[in-house]
Amino acid sequence: MSDRVLAIENLTVALPPWADRAHAVDGVSLEVRRREILCVVGESGSGKSVMAKSVLRLLPEPHVRVTAGRVMYGGEDLLALPAPGIRAIRGGRIAMIFQEPMVALNPLMTVGRQTDEIIEVHTSLGPAARRQRVIEVFADVRLPEPERLLRSYPHELSGGQRQRVMIAMALALEPALIIADEPTTALDVTTQAQILRLLKELQGRHGTAILFITHDFGVVAEIADRVAVMRQGKLVEQGEAQVVLQCPQHAYTQALVAAVPSLSPRQGMPSRSASVAERPLLAVSGLSKTYTGRGGAFSFGRRRVPAVAGVSLEIGKGCSLALVGESGSGKSTLARCIVGLERADCGAIVLEGRDVAHLSRARLRPFRKVLQMIFQDPFASLNPRWRVGDIIAQGPIVNGTPRRKAHAEATELLRLVGLDPKAANRYPHEFSGGQRQRIGIARALAVKPKLIIADEPVSALDVSVQKQVLELLDQLRRAFDLSMLFITHDLRVAAHVCEEIAVMKDGMIVERGATVDVFAAPRHDYTKALLAAVPGRDWSRGAAQ
Amino acid sequence: MQSFWRRFFGNPRVMLSLLWLSFIVAVAAVAPLLAPTSPFAIVAKPFSPPFGEFLLGTDSLGRNLLAGLIYGARTSLLIAILATLAAVAFGTCLGAIAGFYGGIVDDLLMRLSEFFQTIPSFIFAIVLVAILAPSGTSLVIAIATVSWPPIARVVRGEVLTIKAREFVQAAIVAGQRDMPILVGQVLPNALSPLIVTGSLLVANAILIESALSFLGLGAPDLMSWGFQIGAGRAFLRDAWWLVTVPGVAILLTVLAINLVGEGLNDALNPRLRDL
Q1: What is the pLDDT of residue B147?
Q2: Is the dihedral of CA B3, B5, B10, B13 positive or negative?
C-alpha cells in the first residue's frame, strides 16, 4: 500500500521478569496511513504507551525491550537503524507529543529557544530564518502573540498553551507522523476540546498522520478516523471509527463502549419530593476560604488565593448533588472545609441543625459519624501497613464500638461492597485500584453516616472499573438512604450519578439545579461551554437514542 | 515482605557484613568467658610480639592486647548502640512533632536542630565530654547530642509527605486523635528511611567513641579500641600491631555496618537500584 506512513509488524515487547506479565506488547500489527488519525484505545496496562514509545525507541532498556517484530517507516526498519539514523527520524520525520507538557518542557529554557533547538538540530537554517519558522508554527497552533511568547518560560504559560507549544515543536519540521501519547489527559475539559479541535484542523491542513493514544472513548469519537483497541498487550479490534464506535465486534470493545457513562441526565428519585419540606441535612451558606501563601524568596507581602468565595448549597436527606468544575475551581477545597479537614474563613456549615464550621477538631468528633468521605486516589487513601479489616474497623472503634463487633461489621461490609470477606486479613497492596476503592467505600460506610462526600472517587479508575464502582455507590445509596455530595470534573459521571448538579468556577457556584434541567437548558455561559466541551457528545447522544 | 528478606539476604556484601557483625556481637556478649584476665591487668613483660605467649602480644604496660580487643568490642558496641537509640528516640519525637504540627512548632524545632548542626559535631562532643567528666554515660550523652539532628530532619521530611496522604486524612475524618494518627498511621510508614539512617548512625557513633577514647576522653574504667590505638600510637614503629589490630577492628566493624545499612536501603527501596 503506497499511502501508508508507518507499519508496525508483529511487534513484541518484553517486560522485566518481576512484572505481572511477560509481554507489554504481544504481536501487534498496525499501520498508519497518510492523512489519517489512528486512535489506539485501551485501559491502563494495555501496552498502548509502550507500543508508541517503541516506535521511536524510547523504551527504558534493558528492562523493557523489543524482542520481535519490525517498525517500518519509508522502507526502513526503525528498530534496526543505527543511533544517528534514529535521531534524524526522531523529531524530524516522526514527532512525539507527551501527556504532561509541564514535565516534557525544560523549565529553565524559554519555549521559543526549545522550539528553535529542534530546527537547529535538524536543518541548516540560520538564526533569523529559524526565528521566523518558530513564529510561524506558534501562530499555526493559535498561540496568542507568538513574538512575545517566544521569550516565555514554561511556567508562565497555562496548561493549554504549554500543550500548544508541544504541538508547535512537533510540527516545526513538518513531520510525516506525530505520535500523541494521551496529549489531553492532563488538561481540563474545555482546554481539551480546544486542543482536539486544533489537532484535527492542523492535521487537515498539513496532511500529517497522527497516532493518537488515549483511554477515553469520548476523545476517540471526537477525532479518530480509525480505531485500534488494545487489551493486555494484544490488539483485539481495529477498524473505521464509525464502525467500531457504533457496532463494536469484539466483546471487550463492546464492554468498554457500554461502560462509558451516557450523557443523558439522571431523573430525580421519587422519594425526593416528600423530603423537600424537611430541614436539609447539610446547609452551607456563604462559605469562603482564602489561602495565603508565602510569596517567593524576594517578594514582600503574602499572596492571597481565594479558593472558595461565598458558596451556599443544600443537600436534603437521600439527595445527591454533583459538584462539577475544572481544576482550580475550588470544589475540593469546599469538600475539605465541609468535612473539617480545612477551616473555612467565614460562612456557616449547618449539619443536622448545628453549625459545625468553627468547631475545633475535638468538638467536631461527634459529627464524624454523620459525615464521611471517599477519597480520590485508591492507592494513597489506604494505609499500606494496615490490614484491610483494621482500616475499615478504625472509624467505629474510634467512635466507641467494641473491637470484636467492629471487625465483624467490617467483614459484613466487605461482602456488601462485593469483596471476599477473607480480604479483611490482607494488605491493601494485594488489591487492584477498583477493589481498593471498594475498600475505601466500605470504610466510609462503617460508621453508618448519613452524608457521604465523594471527592473524584472514580477519576483514577479505568472506565470499566469506574462503571462498577458507580453502580455500587448507587446501590448503596438506595440501601442506606444516603445523601451524597459527589465532586467530579466529568459531566458524564455527574449526569450518571446525581439528580442535582452545581457548577463551580473560580470558587463560586455559577449555576445549580436539577441535572435534567441544567443539561437541557444551561443558563450560565460557563455551563454551556462545559457541556459543549464534553468529548464525543454527539456520539453519546446518538448512542442514547 | 518476603521479597524484602530475599533481597536483603541475597546480597553477598550484606551476608559477609552480618557474619562479621554477629561474630563481634557474640564476642562482646561473652567477653568475660573469652578473655581470661581483666583488660587492664598487667600479665607479662611489655611489647611481647604476637603469636608468642599471648595471641596478639602485649602493649607498652604489658597488658594482654587480645583481652583489650575483646572488652573493647563490648565498649564500642554498647556505647554506639545506646547513643544511637537515644538519638533516634529523641530525633524521631522532635522530627515527628515538627512535621506533623508544622507552623511555628516546626519553625522552632528546626531552628533548634540547625543550632546543633552548625556546631562542628566532633568538637561539640569533646566539649560535652569535658564538661560532663569522662565516663560511659557522658560518652553516650555526647554522641547522642551530636547525632540526633539528621534523624529529626529525615523523620520530619517523611512525616510531611505522609501526612498529606489521603489515608491520614481518612483517619482524621474517622475522628482519630492526633497522637494515635501520628503513632499508628504516620510513623510506621516513615520506618524504612529511619532504619537506614539509624543503622548508619551506629557506624558513626563507633567512630566518634573511638576518636574520643583516642584523645583520652573515653571512659577511664572501660577498655576500648580507640583507647588502645591512643595508647599504642607512640610505639607505632617498634610495635606496629598495637595500633594496627584495633584499627582494623574499627575499620571492619564500621565498614560492615555501613554495608548492612546500604543493603537495607537497597532492599527497602528496590526501585532505586533496578532503574
Answers
A1: 94
A2: positive
pLDDT over 70 (residue A209): yes
Helix/strand/coil for B55? coil
Q: Please judge whether B165 and A63 are an interchain contact, meaning their C-beta atoms are less than 8 angstroms apart.
A: no
* Residues A64, A238 contacting (CB under 8 angstroms): no
What is the C-alpha separation between B63 and B179, in angstroms, rounded?
54
pLDDT band at A273 (very low <50, low <70, confident <90, very high): very low
Q: What angle do CA A20, A21, A22 make, to 5 degrees?
A: 135
CA distances from B246 to A209, A488, B44, B72 (A): 73, 67, 20, 9
What residue of A is the nearest CA neighbor of B274? A63
Burial profile A223-259: b = 16 or more Cβ within 10 angstroms, e = fewer: bbbbbbbbbbbbbbbbbebeebbeebeeebbeebbeb
Work out the angle between the directed axes of helices B241-268 and B12-29 (0-180°, nearest 10): 130
CB of A383 within 8 Å of a chain B CB? The answer is yes
Residue A374 at interface with chain B, using a CB cutoff of 8 Å? no
pLDDT at A211 over 80: yes
Listed by number, the residues of chain A in 190-249 with a beta carbon closer than 8 Å to a beta carbon of chain B are none
**Count of other CB atoms within 10 angstroms of residue B195:** 15
Q: What share of chain B is helix, strand, coil (3-state, %, to 5)?
A: 75, 0, 20
Q: Is the per-residue pLDDT at A272 higher than 50?
A: no
Q: Which cell numbers in the block locate residue B106?
A: 516546626
CB of A254 less than 8 A from some CB of B: no
How many other CB atoms are found less than 10 A from the CB of residue B168? 23
Q: What is the pLDDT of residue A439?
A: 93
At A274 the pLDDT is: 44
Give the helix/strand (H/E) hosting A304. Answer: strand A302-315
Question: What is residue A364's predicted lDDT score, i.e. its pLDDT?
Answer: 85
Please name the residues in contact with A75: beta carbons below 8 A apart, sequence gap of 6 or more.
none
| pTM of the shown model | 0.82
Is residue A479 classed exposed, middle or buried when 0-12, 13-18 and 19+ CB atoms within 10 A define those classes? exposed
Mutation site for A-interface testing, chosen from B167, B169, B272, B273 by largest number of A Cβ within 10 Å: B167
Instruction: Please classify residue A272 by burial: count the beta carbons closer than 10 Å to its beta carbon, then call 0-12 exposed, 13-18 middle and 19+ buried.
Output: middle
Kind of pairing between the strands at A37-41 and A209-214? parallel
**Residue in A37, A61, A40 with CA at minimum distance from that of residue A51:** A40
Quickly state the pLDDT bin for A535 (edges 50, 70, 90): confident
Q: How far is A111 from chain B (nearest CA, A)?
A: 30
A372/B173 CB distance under 8 A: yes
The residues that bridge with B67 in the sheet, in sequence order, are none
Q: List, in sequence order, the alpha helices (H) in A141-250.
A: 146-149, 159-171, 189-206, 217-223, 241-246
- ipTM comes to 0.79
Task: Please state the rounded mean pLDDT for residues A205-213.
Answer: 91
Q: CA B196 to CA B264: how far, in whole Å?
A: 6
Per-block mean pLDDT, blocks of 10 residues, chain B (275 long): 77 92 92 82 80 79 87 91 95 94 92 93 93 92 94 94 90 89 90 89 93 89 90 86 90 93 82 49
Cell numbers of B188, please? 510506621
Cα B143 to Cα B90: distance, rounded to the nearest angstrom: 13
Give residue B241's pLDDT: 85
Residue numbers in B near A383 (CB within 8 A): 167, 171, 185, 188-189
CA distances from B8 to A385, B14, B196, B207, B269 (A): 20, 7, 13, 25, 11
Biggest alpha carbon–alpha carbon distance for chain B: 75
Contact: B169, A375; criterion CB under 8 Å = yes
CA-based torsion, B180, B182, B186, B191: positive or negative:
negative
> Do residue A383 and residue B173 have CB atoms under 8 angstroms apart?
no
